[in-house]
Amino acid sequence: MKNTIKLFGNLSLFALLFQACNQSTDFAPYKDDQVYSHFLIAADQTNSTLTPFGIRTKGAAGSLKVIPDSTVSAAGAYVVSATPDGKIILSAGSRNSYGYIESFSINKSTGRLTSVGQVQVPRASTDLPTNLSFITIHPNSKYAYVTDGRSDAAGNFAPGKIHILKIEASGAISHIGAETSNNLDWPMGIAIHPDGKYAYVSNYAPGRAVDNKISAYEIDDETGALTELSFSPITATTTKSPRNLTISASGEHLYVVDEYNDPTHISSFTIGADGSLTSQGFVSPDSGTLGAAVAIDPDDRIGFFTNRTDNTLLSFPVNTGSTSLQISSTIGSQGIQPVTVFAHPSLNYVYVGHQASGHISAFSYNPTSGALANLYADASGEKNSPTGTPLVLPGVNAKSSFITIVTLPK
Fold it and tell me: Omega into 52 within 30° of 0, i.e. cis?
């Protein structure tokens, strides 16, 4: 059996990893002896749904198991994130030219979701629909930020927006404003510094003059407002159409994956006290374009990124003190067009989502060397083994797996 979720349909799947508050009690909905300390939640834009999965911690550890009858409707459901305090889940996406953002509470024992409310993001005009691309949440769990790359019917992109939402303790959300700048040209990824002071946005803009720019903002943690820094946008000469970015847990480094360098580049920057970025070089495979996602393990030891043309997952050591990053390991991603990646928050597993085939694949990694390996199960599918066939699970109806991570508090 494969350790891959087979997904069908169109557009996007985002997934979140959640740690349950109780790690010693069996959860009745699963009807087996497995203790699920984490949950992965998948967003299906085709059917506008969210579906949670349990992540095994023993037996076939790291593999995913469906939670019966747990799928819920979610407006848009293209991207999904969670408040750092682990209490509220937000999904976002565009449908019929409008944007939708919906909030959910999560049961920390079962992973089941309950809708709290939603807001609609109106399009600017008839010819300018919304294009919600990514969502992230401030460390204080009070504000969410959603990138919106807008285009007219001819495909010409107008200045983008970053929508700002207020999150109440109850999970209720409200749209309180949007940051608009001529420097935002097809804003795609957004990452917030762990201390909540700065936000960085990738300007995807393929073939345009700003296709190597990163916008930088200071965040008012009391109001959620964004103020563009004086040196923004930042020219990142090692990138071309930056798609996704992430910040190390220490807050010292920003990593950016681009789509149109040949081969793909993963660029590294140090983050100054004033939010400025200083290039620390880049790493790239021997071949392959269309890089899509980058993630750093929670201990800032190993980085991971995906290459969509070669259908591979790659790893590299981080924080080595060198300006020349090196590839540690390369492995087939077990799907078509791997578009996102995240690392488990406490175990040495990494998960990859695929744009074309809709799989979510699971791998183990060596935390010292970065060496990657497939997760295999024995014939029963219940135990890990050195060789065999990767685990497979019943799928949900979606494609384009975009994945991010959060841990629920105990």
Answer: no
Torsion angle defined by CA atoms of residues 133, 243, 271 and 267, in that order, rounded to the nearest 10 degrees = 170
Which among 298, 264, 300, 309 is positioned nearest to 282, based on CA atoms? Answer: 264
Coil, helix or strand for 58? coil
What is the rounded distance in angstroms from the CA atom of residue 217 to the CA atom of residue 123?
24
Q: Could you list the beta-strand ranges (E) of 8-112.
A: 13-19, 36-44, 49-56, 64-66, 72-73, 79-82, 88-95, 98-106
Alpha carbon of residue 279 to chain centroid: 23
**And the tokens for 20?**
């349950």
Q: Is 326 exposed, middle or buried (0-12, 13-18, 19+ CB in 10 A)?
A: exposed
User: For the residues of 91-157, what is the DSSP string, one character each?
Assistant: EEEEETTEEEEEEEEE-TTT--EEEEEEEEE--SBTTB---EEEEEE-TTSSEEEEEE--B-TTSPB
Q: Is the dihedral of CA 56, 64, 402, 257 positive or negative?
A: positive
Candidates 347, 313, 310; CA nearest to 329 is 313
From CA 56, how far away is CA 64, in angstroms rounded?
A: 6
pLDDT tens-place string over residues 107-163: 877 888 999 999 998 776 656 678 888 999 999 999 999 999 866 556 566 678 899
The pTM of the full predicted model, rounded to 2 decimals, is 0.86
Tokens of 152: 């007219």
137: amino acid identity, one letter: I
Cβ neighbours for 377, distance < 8 A, ≥ 6 positions apart? 1, 3, 60, 63, 383, 384, 385, 388, 389, 390, 391
| Main-chain phi, psi angles of 28, to 5 degrees | -55, -40
